[in-house]
Specification:
This protein is an alpha/beta fold and 136 residues long. 43% of the residues lie in helices and 13% in strands. Helix 4 links the parallel strand 3 and strand 4. Helix 2 (21-29) packs across helix 5.
Length: 136
Amino acid sequence: MGERAQAALGVKLLLDEMHAPAVAARMRHGGHDAVAVKESADLIGLGDEELLRAATADRRAVVTENIKDFAVLHRRISASGLSHSGVVFTHPRRFPRSARNHVPVLFEALSVFLAEHGSMLGDVESFVWWLERPHR
């Protein structure tokens, strides 16, 4: 499949190390292209910049709650005229990992995000998105 056709499919996701592989597995079961860092020995332990570079090489947006570091990386990359494949921020107060229902809540929020915005953002370089909990 050509690059253009691949981008038209929407946003592919790479879940940062703080997110459970169960979320990525559930995303895949729901028909989305998602991988967790913890599922790939090549990605475990990479620094933030290297992780963003690896995600971009695979045309994946990074899903992370590491706002402080990834916001700085985004600004630096954008200021240099380069690009990345996107960053989706999850705030720990909106998506507390200690909550019993964390996996289904994050899965639902990512699924809604992809359904509503994924095809539009598939062609957008260096996007930043703040993930919200779906309204019921």
